[in-house]
Amino acid sequence: MPTNTFPNETGTAAAGTWRLGDRTVHRMGFGSMRLTADPDPATAIRVLRRAVELGVDHIDTAAFYVSPGGTLGVGTGPARYATELIRAALAPYPAELVIATKVGFAAADGELSEANGPEQLRAQVDENLRRLGRDHLDLVNLRIVKRAGRDSVAESFGTLAELRAAGKIRQLGLSNVRVDHLDEAQRIAPVVCVQNSYSLDHNRTDDELVRVCGERGIAYVPFFSLAGSRRESGASHDHSDAVHAVARAHRATPQQVRLAWALHQGPHVLAIPGTGNVDHLAANVAAGAIRLTASELATLG
Ligand SMILES: NC(=O)c1ccc[n+]([C@@H]2O[C@H](COP(=O)([O-])OP(=O)(O)OC[C@H]3O[C@@H](n4cnc5c(N)ncnc54)[C@H](OP(=O)(O)O)[C@@H]3O)[C@@H](O)[C@H]2O)c1
């Protein structure tokens, strides 16, 4: 393992900010899915509070981030909801904090399932409000499953647009989508972000969507920027020679280079690396200060 000597306490300011709807957030945010893995909630609470101390003001979550039985499929013991851990750690919430959540799935009785009918979406919004302890949600992403022949987001996104008009939701986004989904949703209500799986060696077909989002002033928020194709299994340790070489040049870790690469894909790209480890959190935030040269970006691909 290379030694990480890159300064780890630089805070989020180095990566700059982006206007997410009517809010401004630092481009280095935090993903909360991993927090549920540790059976001791104190660990998650420590990570969340440290994130905010380091300047993180954009936290991604979902009511279906729960262990055991949610997206990670790990753990035993009583249910630990990321949304409730966020509330325990951070309420009363700092005014500048934007909590992004997502709907379209539900976790019940240890099973995660797609749930995107109007009543299901309304219930999920209410569940997020209840677990987070809020009277409105800052940002809700509609998380879809792409299927040939059943590709319209109109009904689901229309339901969220109604909830936005009613004041329960401030801003809307989309997750796991293509450009045609974005086009359709934008005809219904403003879209402030697209959250898709994307990293330097994974789902690069999204290069075009990253560009389209930039042109339209929409944030592109990659998830699995560390995990890549390992997805829920965790961080990739299979780094290319180019990643290792750039990491050595910056006295950084390969994971930091992966995050820096993501942030270099455009000023509208917002990182949400997930971790349940305070040291990893600090290293990830510090990666926002890495400046890659054009030739380094070319070698990273
Ligand atoms: N919209 C969607 O469908 C969707 C799907 C999945 C996730 N998400 C969101 O995106 C966020 C990011 O995804 P993710 O957390 O699954 O994947 P990720 O950020 O790509 O990688 C997380 C993995 O990397 C490890 N890690 C984090 N920082 C590290 C570091 N500095 N050095 C070494 N290992 C490190 C974590 O383990 P440790 O805990 O040990 O650090 C964890 O195994 C999630 O937290 C969630 O909020 C959205």
From TrEMBL:
The keyword Methyltransferase does not apply. CDD domains: AKR_AKR13B1. It comes from the Bacteria. One of its GO terms (cellular component) is cytoplasm. Keywords: Oxidoreductase. Residues 27-300 form the NADP-dependent oxidoreductase domain. InterPro entries: AKR, Aldo-Keto_reductase, NAD(P)_OxRdtase_dom_sf, NADP_OxRdtase_dom. GO terms for molecular function: oxidoreductase activity. Pfam families: Aldo_ket_red. This is Oxidoreductase.
